Amino acid sequence: MLTGKTALVTGSTSGIGLGIAQALAAQGANIVLNGFGETEGPIAAVRQAAGQRAIQVEYHGADMSKADEIAAMMAFAAERFGRVDILVNNAGIQHVAPVQDFPVEKWDAILAINLSSAFHTTRLALPAMQQANWGRIINVASVHGLVGSAQKSAYVAAKHGIVGLTKVTALENATTGVTCNAICPGWVLTPLVQKQVDAKAAEHSISNAEATKLLLGEKEPSMQFTTPEELGGLAVFFCSPAANNVRGVAWNMDGGWAAQ
Hints:
It contains 8 helices and 7 strands, in the order βαβαβαβαβαβαααβ.
């Protein structure tokens, strides 16, 4: 379905980003990975997901808090593949503290990586998409782009911002073949969330399984994690002809969290 297209996925060396990259590769898209940590494993995982499809996989280690490095990554992708057809803005970090105690440098970092990076990639990807009259911009927001949670001021502010950026980008391109939509997951068992489970287990002196139940029980009625594979499936749908007129949505996969 996506043979000949190129997808750039930020924050894709693990977790949600890697799951989406694998799902797009399975549809035949070439992939540009980005993120911290080792790269051989993620590259191999994407190639494996592609199966017999002859896709190409590249990696760029741009720091998503730095506009000049983002620009270098976008130029690299364009030089390598001609243009970015599918842009998935997934890179994100988290810090938890009350507003009055929130470290200023943490606020700045979260806004830069979780929100501003998506603006920079989007502004640089759009001209070629508009010229080709086809493009898909998928912003991985969060259920926290729709509702708030205590002690997550920067993350909630950034994710609400991502939903707003999604709507404006969609409206500005509404009469073209370029769409922009947001995915809003609830709890996904990524390394980031596993840390929160571990912290809860330590805090209450309970098992990991009990801590998981406690975490899910606070917010997610389904009592189950959303998986990177499910999120990848939604990203593939957004890239399909069936989603040609899906524009500016914030689509939650949150087990009923925002329905409460």
